[in-house]
Design a protein that fits this description.
Strand order of the largest sheet of chain A: 1-9-8-3-4
Largest interface: A-B, 28 and 26 residues
Order of helices and strands of chain B: EEEEEEEEEEE
Radius of gyration of chain B: 13 Å
Structural class of chain B: mainly beta
Helix content of chain B: under 10%
Largest sheet of chain B: 7 strands, mixed
Strand content of chain B: over 45%
Structural class of chain A: mainly beta
Order of helices and strands of chain A: EEEEEEEEE
Number of strands of chain B: 11
Strand content of chain A: over 45%
Oligomer: heterodimer
Number of helices of chain B: 0
Shape of chain A: globular
């Protein structure tokens, strides 16, 4: 079962920041937080991941709370092409076998509106 | 270009027939994965392989089989034992545990 909780859907106005929350209250010290997104009928696309520090790349920023029990993915200037299902996943790093596999929940369907 | 090729994009089969979905990668990644996605649902892991000639069952392996004879290839066979084979099938690769997965574009299988 997925170890994360996300709202099923969110709306965002084009050009505004989209803030997608994720709760992972049972996260362990050796688990990373990963974010993927899936545009309709395509394979998921990796966005960003982090352990405990905030991370930023060309696509998004990841803010992880100090207690690591929740995180927020920020798309700073959402466009219509950011409309997708966004998945928040926790994953054990540095181990082999099933513990290191990505387990996908149902994610958050983000709709960016003009 | 480096990437993952899944073929075909759409596949139709009659009930009771086995069908094999292709997944080829040129990313030189060690690990490969097969996921199934049903409408409105997340992805569920079918099988995974972390090295050539070795593979493990995922959460929903019943009715499926795989092989990993080459690093580049990880074909999935949907057998007649799979009760509800109609779904979107996604192949992924991974390299190292601090990196994400790379996904193919998927094969949509319809059994009639």
């Amino acid at each position: 079962d997925a170890k994360t909780t996300q709202p099923p859907s969110m709306d965002c106005a084009e050009g505004r920041a989209a803030n997608l929350p994720c709760n992972h209250s049972t996260i362990s010290g050796n688990e990373y937080v990963y974010w993927y997104r899936q545009i309709h009928s395509q394979g998921p696309q990796y966005i960003i991941h982090g352990l405990k520090n905030n991370e930023t790349n060309e696509m998004a920023s990841l803010i992880i709370t100090e207690d690591r029990k929740s995180s927020t993915l920020i798309l700073p200037h959402a466009t219509l092409r950011d409309t997708a299902v966004y998945y928040c996943i926790v994953r054990v790093a540095g181990v082999s076998g099933s513990q290191g596999n990505l387990i996908f929940g149902k994610g958050t369907k983000l709709s960016v509106k003009p | 270009d480096g990437g993952i090729t899944q073929s075909p994009k759409y596949l139709f089969r009659k009930e009771g027939q086995n069908v094999t979905l292709s997944c080829e990668q040129n990313l030189n990644h060690d690990a490969m994965y097969w996921y199934r996605q049903d409408p409105g649902q997340g992805l569920r892991l079918i099988y995974y392989s972390q090295i050539v000639n070795d593979f493990q069952k995922g959460d929903i392996a019943e009715g499926y089989s795989v092989s990993r004879e080459k690093k580049e290839s990880f074909p999935l066979t949907v057998t007649s034992a799979q009760k509800n084979p109609t779904a979107f099938y996604l192949c992924a690769t991974g390299q190292g545990f601090n990196y994400g997965y790379t996904f193919g574009s998927g094969t949509r299988l319809t059994v009639v």
